[in-house]
Please model this.
Amino acid sequence: MENFFIKVKGIIEAADDSANYFLDNWNEHNFTVSKSSIFDIIKALKENGFQYLVDITGAHYPDTENEYQIVYHIHNLTENLRIRLKVNLDSKKLEVPSMVSLYDGANWMERETFDFYGISFTNHPNLTRILNVDDMDYHPMRKEYKLEDETRTDKSDKYFGR
Amino acid sequence: MSELDLNQQNTAISSETIDGQIATLNLGPTHPATHGIFQNILQVDGERILSAEQTVGYIHRAFEKLSERRPYNQITPITDRLNYCSSPINNIGWHMTVEKLIGAELPKRVDYMRVIVMELARIADHLVCNSVIGVDTGALTGFTYMFQEREKIYDLYEEICGARLTTNVGRIGGFDRDFSPGFYSKLNEFLKEFPKRFDEFSSMLERNRIFMDRCIGAGPISAERALSYSFAGPNLRAAGVDFDVRVMKPYSSYEDFNFEIPVGSDGDTYDRFMVRQQEIRESLKIIQQALDNMPEGKYHADIPDFYLPPKEEVYSSMEALIYHFKIIMGETAIPKGEVYHSVEGGNGELGYYLVSDGGRTPYRLHFRRPCFIYYQAYPEMIKGALLSDAILTMSSMNVIAGELDA
Amino acid sequence: MVKVVKAPEGIEGQGFFATSFDKVIGLARANSLWPLPFATSCCGIEFMATMGPNYDLARFGSERMSFSPRQADLLIVAGTISKKLGPVLKKVYDQMAEPKWVLSVGACASSGGIFDTYSVLQGIDHVIPVDVYVPGCPPRPEQIIEGVLKIQELAKNESLRRRDSVEYKKMLESYNIEQQ
Model:
């Protein structure tokens, strides 16, 4: 598996020279890559046996340089190798290429990330809200929004310690 | 008017009108056959389905945002409600994620205890799915018999944690108490009696001519398409790919146990049913092995920062009192970092992506829910099928609404 | 041993039994409530266990689970109701014929439960009138049966004119429900 991982690292660094790798304390491989090369990287990985897209999700880090982050987990079944790819996004341009043409399973994963964070995926066939009501006008998982519904009248936050 | 020809079939409607009639059928959110709340708007031509448009999110409860508010040990009741048919697996998966983050070492006894509880949960989940497949084909008796067996599993849960369905079992670091003698006697009786009842259920359906005719060929999916849709669990194994998280990335000492992974070939409803049947038998084997080889030791890890000290010490020693206070108020310091841990749930790879910034609650917690991901493939699986096959496919995929919407 | 329901008070004689309509119709309605299980999440599985052989609900008259609103008497809402599902619930309630009762099973249906979030309806009594609430997360099958028994008490003692009365109409208007 070691040789295969070195080959994978070579592929990623060849596609994106600003790729940043570190092996964290839990023995998981993390790569931080740029938005422009993520599609080519995942395409190259898929051709090298990474057939199983585990998850696509997003995260919001306000008050930092790169406010939004998309995290991809991808797995190779034959070599039993799992890597994590992260793409940092700026809040002014929240766009990432969509992986739907490579993996059909990415369709709803990206819709969920759009629903929660407002990150748009270019070339997605149907980028609409999936879990929340369709006429919701904000993206609830962003840190600036509260958990509770502001318009409810029957519960007083005073009694719930908030 | 021409003479009536009695030899000709009397078709008053011309065939063009029949072929051009495409009806829209709403398999709405509340429907007796969709076990869960999700909507499919189907375009049907007669009885054949042409396409389906799905709407989910009818019980979206905002788990991910809710878990950013709660301290680590208060998130366990939330994970219960993901796949509520097998809630111990969700609880233990969450505890393992936190233990991975803090780097806790667990005694072997805890691993074996967890394996017993998780395999019982897997049996309970598969029993629901299989009896519901029986109900959808018209065999209601199997449902009644197997729900009686689930009551015995609920009795076992009550011995360990006190609750029936949403168990909230265990703690970060192990269990809150050792298994009682009542649990062992009930488990031994279960392992003796359940296989006989299960064989009765299997003999009713497995080689039944009518059941096989209904299920074979209903809702097939090939291995390549299943992998492209990121299937996992029994659905993927029925399609032919032997991917099981317990074997590929073993956790909780699963590598000590001797069990097989059943794999199907066509990915249709019959294969999914049979894969689940065989997995129940394998789970029984695993539980028997864990019970026979249970090592001695403590039932919890040695992590005083996260595991409540015994009450006698709280009343007598100062450090224990401080630990108790900090754990209950949720003020424990936790290392910064991010981990991803997955367990083999009843439906496949259930993953937890946890980002911690050192505070009392997670900064970001994402659940990788298998139901949500593989339900996308449903329109492709029922294309061209009859309406009754579509209902059967949906129940054989074991879509649990709590896990779908989270 | 089979327990039979007690007959109402009345005047008995050779070949006849005279009592009031209210009592007889109440007795018949109470012991043959056909529920519509509107089961959404975890409470739905406990409801399935209540229907199962161990805690049989059918012995109280709810033998046939009617999934069609037109033929149901009792709407059992078990599980979390989100804001997206609220209109659907109201539509199902509207489609039921009078007399109808509503049983709200579980903490989520009664008040939103532990999910005090932006997407969960904090109790179904924001959209439909409820008769009996069963607390619990999830409630044990015995508690669900107790809820059904309380509905039976309500059905037995209900006056025949209640559904046409002014107070009932006013209550329905407060929920924006048009009486059929």
About this structure: The mean pLDDT of chain B is 88. The longest helix of chain B spans residues 108-137. The longest strand of chain B covers residues 337-345. The radius of gyration of chain B is 24 Å.
